[in-house]
Design goal:
This protein is of the alpha+beta class. The protein folds into four domains: about 90 residues, MutS, DNA mismatch repair protein, domain I, CATH 3.40.1170.60; about 120 residues, Alpha-Beta Plaits (2-Layer Sandwich), CATH 3.30.70.270; about 100 residues, DNA polymerase, Y-family, little finger domain (Dna Ligase, domain 1); about 190 residues, no CATH class. About 50% of the residues lie in helices and about 10% in strands. The strands form four sheets. A five-stranded mixed β-sheet has the order 5-6-1-7-8. A four-stranded antiparallel β-sheet has the order 9-12-10-11, with helices on one face. α11 links the parallel β7 and β8. The longest helix has about 30 residues. The N terminus and C terminus are likely disordered. The structure holds a DNA duplex. Its cofactor is Mg(2+). It holds the Pfam family IMS. InterPro entries: DNA/RNA_pol_sf, DNA_pol_Y-fam_lit_finger_sf, DNA_pol_Y-fam_little_finger, DNA_polymerase-Y, DNApol_IV, Rev_trsase/Diguanyl_cyclase, UBZ3, UmuC. Keywords: DNA damage, DNA repair, DNA replication, DNA-binding, DNA-directed DNA polymerase, Magnesium, Metal-binding, Mutator protein, Nucleotidyltransferase, Nucleus, Transferase, Zinc, Zinc-finger.
Length: about 700
DNA sequence: GGGCCGCAAACCA
DNA sequence: TTCCATGGTTTGCGGCCC
């Protein structure tokens, strides 16, 4: 079977009566709702629509590179002696038995996946779309297609113009993330009832550890899944699919089996797992994508998870230790069973695609816009970074990155633009269709830290004035309150924190009106997050007090009508995050600061010049001066919060970080382990540790 | 020569 | 006419330092 596939792959380079068969796209993979699709026809149309384009040429280049990699690995395989193979097989067996020893069948995980989420939400908002082929996205790119459209071969990540060729009646609906976020929040309220620590991996997917609730209610996992799906439907009008398994990797695979609107339960039983995994195609595993599948199939003839174990010796021979370990664990059906702790974000980026141009003035303008956007995001999060990465996509779709690490941490658009311009200049002349900017290496320890350690921080100052009483937190300190609401997933916090969603919920929503959910008639935020905001402000702002128990839509009709009534104009929090900060600063200012010693923050040098930033404002500019003071106060507050955030997290995760460091250095040691020498590493076999499975 | 850091590229969801 | 945006992760490689 593997050989046959290799033949097929090899034929791609030669002339053929069916050249489209050699154009490997992701569009012909088996996907729920795509049964009965004429795959050959889809492949031919995709090929014909793409042929000759720059995108197509770049895809050909990439594929040629993969083929080269495959050839090189085959050559390495061929060089292995019988003794080598025996050695690596022993190594694989040992690793398999060690991995088997780590198997944990004590937890029950449930993966929920909303069915064609964006498309379903759009249909809910506009019932006229029901039963018609429809795609959410644009002529350039489709985000989701409904099941009617999938029957034509239309699917997510496909360019709209190809989709229209496949299905001329296809209706295009533009994306509306506010809508999706709103419905996502409704689903999460349901998830929270089953697992307060559930892990959302995107707007439409989540993992729940249902071990405890199954025990408490003496009910089996299938019944829980059934009940959860019914509740989600009652609350939102949307259907979802569920998978239950002993770990997240398996639960995710299971949720795909009876999609849409179905579920599959894999019992926590060794034999059941091994039987299930034995014939499972490797592509079903999260983390194994098009390229990995291609390589494993064409080099080793690995098609199913079971093959991973059978070819374990070769896998150990040719891949790095961590990569081989992942592949072998896939063969055993192992996955994560713990609930991971909070992860800090490591970078912030912005990128934009535009009509390809080599016009330097235009490119510079794009860079300016991106620098502004990135700076705004950085300041919203209260972060500074010292590694700036410029990403470019040329008009021929070649992607380049250019990075520089600075001595100092930056976040202002001026600084970002200054360094980004230098990076871009070095690439000119060039015709580009995308520019991106990314900042990383954040200053966790330095954000908001006072330069003079003897100087009180603003938080100290506020706390020293018995702010804790005013803030009314049960822990009695601002730091504790911030800590609780952002990082504790306790009864006051409906939403989980995970590597994906922490940004949406814990960084932005707190202060960013643009991320606030829909509001009801009384301008009461429906989402619990807004409730948290109310809590935080409660002692300071009566308007938002007592809004923590916000109305839940009783049915999806309510949800829809609220949604339809609520357009952006009805959202009261329309000010920028900085304005929001200023409001907070003003409130704090009224309570604690304005009557006091402002010089803790800034002084007017010679009664004219700001001691912090140097801006000059005459004494007669009273209002402007106050605004300026407010600005610095807000800035300071934001930094203080960030400091608490990072410190708190650091304290909580000191041990896990140590573990990480240990494992990293272990990996580095492994890299140079003599046994690893001679193995061919390939670029992308890393994915397992990036996943939450 | 090993450890560490930074850069560039690639893959994946 | 037209092929996204964002963020995480791994890996190889090269430079620097001890």
């Amino acid at each position: 079977m593997g050989e046959k596939e290799i033949e097929k792959g090899d034929s791609s380079s030669g002339d053929s009566a069916r050249p489209w068969q050699s154009y490997h796209t992701v569009y012909t993979n088996a996907k729920p709702g795509m049964d009965g699709v004429d795959k050959e026809k889809v492949q031919r149309i995709v090929y014909e629509m793409s042929k000759g384009s720059k995108y197509f040429e770049n895809e050909q280049r990439k594929e040629a590179f993969t083929r080269q990699k495959i050839e090189s690995m085959r050559a390495q395989c061929a060089k292995l002696t019988a003794a080598d193979i025996s050695h690596y097989q022993t190594m694989a067996n040992k690793q398999i038995s060690e991995l088997e020893g780590t198997r944990d069948l004590s937890r029950v995980w449930l993966h929920v996946d909303m069915d064609a989420f964006y498309a379903a939400v759009e249909t809910l908002s506009n019932p006229l779309l029901k039963g018609k082929p429809m795609a959410v996205g644009s002529m350039s790119m489709i985000s989701t297609a409904n099941y009617e459209a999938r029957r034509f071969g239309v699917r997510a990540a496909m360019p709209g113009f190809i989709a229209r060729k496949l299905c001329p009646e296809l209706i295009f609906v533009p994306t509306d993330f506010k809508k999706y976020t709103y419905f996502s929040d409704l689903t999460r309220k349901v998830f929270h009832k089953y697992d307060p620590n559930f892990m959302a991996t995107s707007l439409d997917e989540a993992f729940l550890d249902i071990t405890d609730i199954c025990k408490e209610r003496v009910i089996n996992s299938g019944e829980i899944a059934e009940e959860l799906r019914t509740t989600v439907y009652e609350e939102t009008g949307l259907t979802c699919s569920a998978g239950v398994g002993p770990n997240r990797l398996l639960a995710k695979v299971c949720s795909d089996i009876n999609k849409p609107n179905g579920q599959f339960v894999l019992p926590n039983d060794w034999m059941a797992v091994m039987t299930f995994i034995s014939s499972l195609p490797i592509r079903k595993i999260g983390g194994i994508g098009k390229v990995t599948e291609h390589i494993l199939r064409d080099v080793f003839g690995i098609n199913t998870c079971e093959d991973m174990l059978q070819k374990g010796g070769f896998v150990c021979a040719l891949f790095s230790h961590s990569t081989a370990e992942f592949f072998l664990s896939v063969g055993l059906g192992l996955g994560k069973t713990d609930t991971p702790q909070v992860k800090l974000r490591k970078s912030i980026s912005n990128e934009r695609t535009f009509a390809a141009t080599g016009d330097e003035a235009l490119l510079h303008q794009k860079l300016c816009d991106l620098a502004d956007m990135l700076s705004a995001d950085m300041q919203k999060e209260g972060l500074s970074g010292r590694t700036l990465t410029l990403k470019l996509k040329t008009s021929s779709f070649e992607v380049r990155t250019r990075a520089m690490t600075l001595q100092q941490y930056i976040c202002s658009s001026e600084d970002i633009l200054k360094y980004a311009s230098n990076l871009l200049k070095a690439e000119l002349p060039v015709s580009l269709r995308l520019i991106g900017l990314r900042l990383s290496q954040f200053n966790e320890d330095k954000v908001g830290a006072p330069s003079d350690t003897t100087q009180k921080t603003l938080t100290d100052f506020l706390l020293s004035r018995d702010t804790s009483r005013k803030l009314g937190g049960r822990n009695g300190s601002l730091g504790a309150i911030i800590d609780d609401h952002r990082f504790m997933n306790d009864t006051e916090t409906d939403f989980p924190i995970d590597s994906h969603e922490i940004y949406g919920y814990n960084g932005k929503d707190l202060l960013d009106s643009n991320h606030l959910p829909y509001l009801n008639d009384n301008n009461h935020a429906i989402s619990n997050k807004a409730g948290e905001m109310g809590k935080i402000h409660e002692p300071l702002n009566n308007e938002t007090a007592n809004e923590t128990n916000l109305p839940e839509p009783k049915s999806h009709q309510n949800a829809v009508s609220e949604l339809l009534e609520a357009d952006s104009s009805s959202v009261p929090f329309t000010c920028s995050s900085l304005d929001e900060e200023n409001k907070r600063a003003n409130l704090l200012d009224d309570e604690a600061v304005s009557t006091s010693n402002q010089s803790e923050l800034l002084m007017w040098v010679n009664d004219y010049k700001c001691s912090l930033c140097g801006i000059e404002l005459p004494p007669s500019f009273v209002e402007e001066r106050q605004e300026h003071f407010d600005f610095h106060l807000a800035e300071r507050l934001q930094k203080e919060e960030s400091l608490y955030d990072t410190r708190t997290i650091k304290q909580r995760h000191r041990f896990s970080q140590k573990d990480n460091v240990a494992s990293q250095s272990k990996r580095k040691k492994q890299k140079t382990c003599p046994k690893d020498k001679g193995r061919i590493p390939i670029d992308a076999f890393f994915v397992k540790s990036s996943k939450n499975f």
